[in-house]
Amino acid sequence: MSIVAEKVVKTYGQQQALNGVSFEIGRGQIVGFLGPNGAGKSTMMKIITCYIPPTSGKVNVCGFDVMSQSTEAKRCIGYLPEHNPLYTDMYVREYLSFVGGMYNIPNVKSRVEEMIETVGLQSEAHKKIETLSKGYRQRIGLAQALIHDPQVLILDEPTSGLDPNQLVEIRNLIVAVGKTKTVMLSTHIMQEVEAMCDKAFIIDRGNIVANDLDIKELAKEGKRLEEIFKDATKKVASGE
Ligand code: ADP
Ligand code: MG
Fold first, then answer.
1. How many helices (H) and strands (E) does the chain have?
2. What is the CATH number of domain 1-76+150-162+179-240?
3. Which one of 70, 109, 111, 145 is most buried, counting C-beta atoms within 10 A?
């Protein structure tokens, strides 16, 4: 297993963001983490990537506990946070070299060039980040997540705010890099999960309400994710 979450609880003061979330993600899968706004997706991703600790429960990534072995865990995780925070006054190469330096990558220069090619940034690589479109900024976000060649990629709403062409390009890129990695991506767009993912989980108000949905099986059975989403989130709302 690449990611194992066991009964993860997170409270922010009075606000319960995760109510005992458990799931497993197998190696090499592209998994959609679906849920409405405020469901707890970003919180779960911040815990997986060692940015915040859980209030209770356990998360294991590539065999490493995110609390007691966070250095080892971080080494096998690439993370594209929500809203893709970048140092916009840096140049593309400068920024990627900076990130590569933080990971202590040998031959940073050639690795940066490799990443620029992988994510299709060649035409923009000499520019300042602030001059780039949102689609190209997402490519930089993906490049920084990939630079240390992690086994697991955590992408928090990677396609939000993109125009239709950028959307298709970033989706294709995620599917391409996902061929050799485990990818967990959050979204509230069902079609996106149907287009890109092998599996899906649905979270609502801090609870997993649909676990380990197999996207191909659903398609074979003629079931739409949208219907499952509506049903699953209804149950929690009525307290059943
Ligand atoms: P999602 O990413 O699914 O939209 P989040 O994980 O961002 O959901 O948020 C889950 C819940 O936790 C929401 O009710 C949100 O308001 C709350 N929350 C998130 N971050 C904080 C924080 N730093 N302090 C207080 N409440 C927070
Ligand atoms: Mg979020």
1. 9, 10
2. 3.40.50.300
3. 145
